[in-house]
């Protein structure tokens, strides 16, 4: 049996951990209690299902008498599609949306947040196909003109499950580009849910109730619900489990932000979205925001950080 000592959390983050609405572990029976539906613009999904979108546009786009439903045209702006977290089990497109809204305020961008179908009612590939459909819809030139986005500056971002879905969307966009699929200029993966394989080290480090957010047991439960009979075998699609992709060529420039592997030591899963005002959260966000700004400005087409954008 493998034993391991879980690294300590940052003291400021640890002090608020018990106040967060997400328990370290939960089961499928708990999901209806925390799911919450919202209303917004609805588009047709891949299976004829509705996909709800919330569109956040800079205030400068409106006159004093205009609203979000006012007549067009709007100015053509960079576009951030936000894919929320929740283990592909929880549905609420407003979870964590303050994060891309902060980027948008600095970049003058439009944010579109996606309400995708979740498991266990809708197992894979429902969630990733919904997210891809939303990105493709906005990248359609007629729709882009309608909501005022620049199809050459489309950045896809997500946290946790949303990060995994964003990675899956980018793989889909690459593979479907020859048949008119959307082109993504950049990708932001925050604590992404990429891999269904929960090994012994993961269980030893992040198992049980001592885990701040999203224990190894919860992760395993979620992937089993998402993949069903494909769980932990080689038949799962890389679109559904991006960590199983063997060909990463042709993907857009990507920023990967993690805490659990201690790039930002002392952070728990999703810390900089859940506790954005903590010193460690602000420290971790600074290079990410600089990267997003540079990507949407076109400062570094290959995704390489330059000194004048740090």
Q: H/E order of the elements? A: HHEEEHEHHEHEHHEHH
End-to-end gap: 44 Å
User: Architecture, according to CATH?
Assistant: 3-Layer(aba) Sandwich
**Rg over CA atoms:** 19 Å
Structural class: alpha/beta
Query: What value does the average pLDDT take?
Result: 81
Number of helices: 10
Lateral strand order in the biggest sheet:
1-2-4-3-5-6-7
Characteristic terms for this protein:
single chain; 310 residues; alpha/beta; Rossmann fold; seven-stranded mixed beta sheet; 10 helices; 14% strand; globular
Could you explain the architecture of this structure?
The structure is a single chain. This protein has a single domain (11-60, 72-305), classed as Rossmann fold, CATH 3.40.50.1820. 31% of the residues lie in helices and 14% in strands. It is built from ten helices and seven strands. Helix 4 (126-139) crosses helix 6. The chain is globular.
Question: How do the strands and helices of this protein lay out in sequence?
Answer:
Layout: H1 11-14, H2 31-34, E1 41-44, E2 50-56, E3 77-83, H3 98-107, E4 110-115, H4 126-139, H5 141-147, E5 149-159, H6 161-175, E6 186-190, H7 200-206, H8 216-227, E7 254-257, H9 271-274, H10 279-297
Parallel strand pairs: 3-4, 3-5, 5-6, 6-7
Antiparallel strand pairs: 1-2, 2-4
Helix pairs in contact: 4-6
Summarize the structure.
This is Alpha/beta hydrolase domain protein. It contains ten helices and seven strands.
């Amino acid at each position: 049996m493998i034993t391991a000592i879980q690294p300590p959390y940052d003291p400021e983050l640890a002090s608020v951990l018990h106040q967060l609405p997400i328990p370290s572990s939960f089961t499928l029976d708990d999901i209806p209690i925390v799911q919450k539906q919202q209303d917004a613009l609805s588009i047709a999904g891949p299976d004829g299902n509705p996909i709800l979108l919330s569109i956040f546009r800079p205030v400068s786009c409106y006159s004093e008498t205009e609203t979000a439903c006012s007549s067009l045209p709007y100015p053509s702006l960079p576009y951030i599609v936000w894919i929320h977290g929740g283990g592909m089990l929880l549905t609420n497109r407003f979870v964590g949306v303050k994060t891309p809204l902060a980027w948008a305020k600095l970049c003058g961008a439009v944010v579109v947040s996606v309400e995708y179908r979740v498991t266990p009612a809708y197992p894979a590939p429902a969630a990733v196909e919904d997210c891809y459909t939303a990105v493709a819809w906005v990248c359609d030139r007629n729709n882009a003109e309608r909501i005022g986005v620049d199809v050459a500056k489309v950045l896809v971002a997500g946290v946790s499950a949303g990060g995994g879905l964003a990675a899956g969307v980018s793989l889909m966009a690459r593979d479907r580009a020859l048949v008119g699929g959307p082109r993504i200029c950049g990708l932001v993966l925050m604590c992404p849910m990429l891999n269904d394989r929960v090994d012994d080290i993961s269980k030893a480090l992040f198992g049980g109730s001592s885990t701040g957010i999203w224990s190894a047991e919860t992760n395993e439960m979620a992937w089993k619900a998402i993949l069903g009979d494909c769980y932990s075998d080689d038949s799962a699609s890389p679109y559904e489990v991006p960590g199983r992709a063997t060909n990463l060529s042709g993907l857009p420039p990507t920023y990967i932000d993690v805490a659990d592997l201690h790039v930002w030591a002392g952070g728990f899963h999703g810390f900089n979205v859940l506790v954005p005002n903590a010193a460690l959260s602000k420290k971790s966000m600074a290079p990410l925001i600089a990267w997003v700004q540079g990507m949407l400005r076109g400062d570094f087409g290959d995704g390489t950080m330059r000194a004048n954008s740090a």
